[in-house]
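Title: Prediction job returns without error message
Component: structure pipeline
Severity: low
Priority: P3
Assignee: unassigned

Description:
Job completed but the reporter wants confirmation the result is attached to the right record. Sequence as submitted:
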Amino acid sequence: MSTSIMIIDKGEDEEGNLTIAFKRDSSDAEENADVLVPKGELVTWNNRTNVPLTLKALNPDGEYITGEIRPGTGSEPSFQADVSLEYHCVSPDYPHVKITIPDS
């Protein structure tokens, strides 16, 4: 199985900087909601913005979880969810979202 998360362009803030939202790729998903996935599931992010983006873990800190995701493409390779983590884009660095793996 796999989980797809869209990165959505939310326009610009007051300073003209890109703002984004993360949304699980399903009709009933909420923007920037934490995502629950089974251990080992593959997660792919789909960049629906007009700029390249890179995702980085906040907890555990410092790990890049994707390479650059070009506009209109998905992350390559997919991320295998082996641990729960909080992540964000390198730029813009907000919002922060969690992938949570339930206890067995």
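Comment from assignee: result matches the submitted record. The domain at 2-100 is CATH 2.60.40.420 (Immunoglobulin-like).
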